[in-house]
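Supplementary Methods, section 5.1.

A reviewer requested that the exact input to the structure prediction be made available. We therefore reproduce it here, unchanged from the version used in the analyses.
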Amino acid sequence: QVQLAESGGGLVQAGGSLRVSCAASGRTFSRYAVGWFRQAPGKEREFVAAIIWSGASTWYEDSVKSRFTISRDNAKKTVYLQMNSLKPEDTAVYYCACDSSPWRTSMPPMGAYGYWGQGTQVTVSS
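The structure derived from this sequence is encoded token-by-token as follows.
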């Protein structure tokens, strides 16, 4: 089992920056890929970014490329999402999720994420 806890959300003006964190406990976190997802009101949850266990490979949804950066510190069991040049359309609840299979080196499919956090609200005002 793994438990995930997001933090760092809040209210920011358009053009500003925010870093959200995903802290893990309960499993050998360093073996697993982690993804960030978001869900805006009235919309389905969507993929934002993912990072493999070593941090050597990352993937991003097109609308956040060049603005968001995913990273991880396995010693701290934490994955980060640095969000720059935020836009009102980035407003959503942000969730982190952990892959169920260890040592994956390709982008995990959506169904591979077996553990989810409770989410943290990010609100970008115009």
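The chain has a mean pLDDT of 96. These observations are discussed further in the main text.
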